[in-house]
Amino acid sequence: MRSTFRILFYVKKNAPLRNGEFPIMGRITIDGRRVQFSTRLSVPPGLWETVAGKAGGRSAAANRINDRLAHIRFRMEQCYESVFAERKYVTPQAVKARFFGTDLDCMNLLAFFRRHNDEFARMVGISRSRSSYYKYRCVYTHLAAFIRQRYQCEDLTFRELDRSFLVGFHAWIRKEPTLRTNTAWVYMTALKHILMLARGHGYIQRDLFVNYKLHSESVIRNYLTEEELLEIMHVPLDEPELQLVRDAYVFSCFTGLSYIDVCELHPEHLRHERDELWLRTKRHKTGTTIDIRLFAVPQAILLRYGQHSHNERFFKLPSNGWCNACLKRIVDRTHIGRRITFHSARHTFATTITLSQGMAIETISKLLGHTNIRTTQIYATITRGRLTSELDRLSQRLDTFCQAVVS
Fold first, then answer.
1. How far apart are alpha carbons 129 and 123 in whole angstroms?
2. CB neighbours of 292 closer than 8 A, spacing ≥ 6?
3. pLDDT number for residue 203
4. Whether the Cβ atoms of residue 33 and residue 14 lie closer than 8 Å to each other
5. Are the beta carbons of 292 and 367 closer than 8 angstroms?
6. Going by DSSP bridges, is the β-strand pair 270-273/5-11 parallel, antiparallel, or unpaired?
7. What is the mean pLDDT of residues 160-188?
8. Per-domain residue ranges of the chain
9. Is this structure's pTM higher than 0.90?
10. Beta-strand relationship, 276-282 and 289-293
């Protein structure tokens, strides 16, 4: 079934050019979906006929503009016909891309993926995170290797993608010894996002992920118990770098701040209310404002580093990976006996510091800066001590109830 295809020309009166003329814009509408484009033409004020959608009068300037618009319309119709012949499913974005020649580099999966990653990289630090960029870059690398191995070529057109492609790639990354189940799930979710963008541009007609279930497995979150945290705090350290990482990690355990938020912590984030010291900052990841009251341990740490900060950042930490390597060296000097990363400090805050002490999950979510309480439920684990305490209270209530019934 053919689509309803229309082209409309209009002038942009709210954005006059330096010479006083108005730019002429075009609009492609297909089945109610539309996209705009610039004709790279302009018209003097008063010469444009809005109803007719062309320059009015019989002057040489008007005839020249109308001839150019007629040629653009003819070329757009040709682009529509060619796209329709190839895909049987046409979007205004696809027609526009064909007209301007920008679809030639995006008809293939990896070429489209590269363009996405290049655009994503330019937004890192503005509205995109570097970790997400690294994720998409890793998915692209695995996808390119899979296509070379399975299909013996450097790229695939979108028309060649089918359900067997998804199943094959999913099975291929699951066989990678360094990729866990949840990593494969994250990679497939990223690929789903890329194909969704391609579908929005008209390169794919159907959603390949329809009825294709992606599942993640439950993971036991790593955190420190009270005894382990105390051991980390009191382990003897002579190296200044290990002391810095240890102090920043302990500070994170008592505040719930992530690695990047600890790195960006500045004296201006501190404020005094009555006799209490509070920390107000925004999460680097979500931009959510968080207010944290600083108790004795984090206050002592800030006092120690604030004397040397000179209105600069408190903690001048190395990279996250190097911090994790330092934490490994620290843990090796204790009896903890398992791997600890800097991010485990947030889980320690959510579990040992707050939830185990009876704090409500809603309050913990606010302190962590989460926008969804379900995320907090992942961070906060019910400890054995908390479970025993809750069951003891329940047992007391039931005993009182049973005694009242018997009497």
1. 8
2. 255, 256, 257, 278, 279, 280, 367
3. 81
4. no
5. yes
6. unpaired
7. 88
8. 5-100, 109-200, 226-389
9. no
10. antiparallel
